[in-house]
Amino acid sequence: MQLGLIGLGKMGGNMRERLRRAGHEVVGYDRNPDIADVASLSELVGRLDAPRVVWVMVPAGEPTQQTVEELGELLSAGDVVVDGGNSRFTDDKIHADHLSAKGIGYVDCGVSGGVWGLQNGYALMVGGSKDDVAKVQPIFDALKPEGEFGFVHAGGVGAGHYTKMVHNGIEYGLMQAYAEGFELLEASEIVDDVPGAIKSWRKGTVIQSWLLDLLDRALDEDPKLAKIKGYAADSGEGRWTVEEAIRLGVPLNVISASLFARFSSRQEESPTMKAVAALRHQFGGHAVQEEADG
Fold first, then answer.
1. pLDDT number for residue 61
2. How much is the pLDDT for 293?
3. CATH number, domain with residue 74
4. What is the value of pTM for the model shown?
5. Is 164 a catalytic site residue?
6. Is residue 281 included in any domain, yes or no?
7. What pLDDT, on the 0 to 100 scale, is given for residue 21?
8. Is the same domain home to 183 and 118?
9. Residue tagged active-site, from 17, 70, 171, 244
10. Do residues 112 and 248 share a domain?
């Protein structure tokens, strides 16, 4: 089938290639003319036969909002827009309501797979009506990994991005656990081969996973991770997951802690720990290191 694809960055570009290898016709638009197939959204829409499917793969928030609004003026009743970015699930109803007034369908799709998706396929978490999802199903089938796993129609509009939000929250916790285990091994005076210990976990253990494989790969390149600064950003999904946990009264101890750990990573020196040191000095006379002491 035909697909219009907006946003040809690290993931969007690979998705275009995977779909073309599967025999689909993809018309891609990007602000970078060197990688775009067309020069504008109107040209992209004009290249597609009705009923059209257009996949939006741009940053969440204002860029997605502007793109959806512009598509609302260009597309026709019976067409479908797919938001495959990392939009907050609450934005999906806004987008869907805006498009439905014009008879245009809307599907939200959480996408996991990163830069490895071209080779391995993308896990897809979809929200929307059965009819709208069915119109896009051949595209989903081409993007997902082979086999029975890697795709879910999770529910109505918003359910796809909600599921992806929780997925990313779990990802935060898993990465934090592996990272803390690595640090403990590094600190030990008993373990001599830390990269080898990590590598030994990759098969036959209950903690084997793709994330562990990637940590092993990183250690092969830099056994002590000496070239990497310990700064970890967050793209929003972890925060949204914790906010939902608060709203619903669900205890997310590990995921919350992993999010706060990322905040700590961005501090040159923690004001919290300065206060702890000051308090220990005040009540117990414990030694305090001053800035001049290094």
1. 93
2. 46
3. 3.40.50.720
4. 0.91
5. yes
6. no
7. 98
8. no
9. 171
10. no
The pLDDT tens digits for 163-221 are 999 999 999 999 999 999 999 999 999 999 999 999 999 999 999 999 999 999 999 99
Active-site annotation holder among 135, 144, 164, 237: 164
One domain, residues 133 and 212: no
Q: Are strands 123-127 and 151-155 parallel, antiparallel or unpaired?
A: parallel
Is 149 in the same domain as 174? no
**Which pLDDT score, from 0 to 100, does residue 291 have?**
63
Q: Measured in Å, how far apart are the chain's first and last C-alpha atoms? A: 63
CB 84, CB 57: distance < 8 Å: yes
pLDDT computed for residue 214 by the predictor: 93
Q: Which candidate, 60, 50, 53, 10, places its Cα nearest to that of 30?
A: 10
- Asked if residue 204 is part of any domain, the answer here is yes
Q: How far apart are CA 161 and CA 94, in angstroms?
A: 13
Instruction: Mark whether 150 and 187 lie in a shared domain.
Output: no
Q: Total structural domains in the chain?
A: 2
Domain that includes residue 46, residue range? 2-157
